[in-house]
Amino acid sequence: EESLLVIRSLGVQTSTTAGTWVGMGRRTRFIPTEKVRDVVVNEGFWGMEVRFYLAVVVEGEKELVVVFPTLLPGRRICEQVWRGARRCLYQ
Prior knowledge:
Layout: E1 2-7, E2 11-17, E3 26-32, E4 36-46, E5 49-58, E6 65-67, H1 75-90
């Protein structure tokens, strides 16, 4: 299970639940609004395929925070979530 929660004027929370194996569990990260530089739909290569993913650019961090890292939904779904997240964060 993976989720993205965007709360206007507060921040963004990403959450991923891994399998039920020992040592795995729920990873949750909260990013305050003032640290969110942008929310982007990016593309990367997986073997010979191009995969789209949703990510948060966090101020002061070199790496993107990938939303839905296990699920990796298609471009259309990423774009719908991206529009909603940006609308909530920036309007």
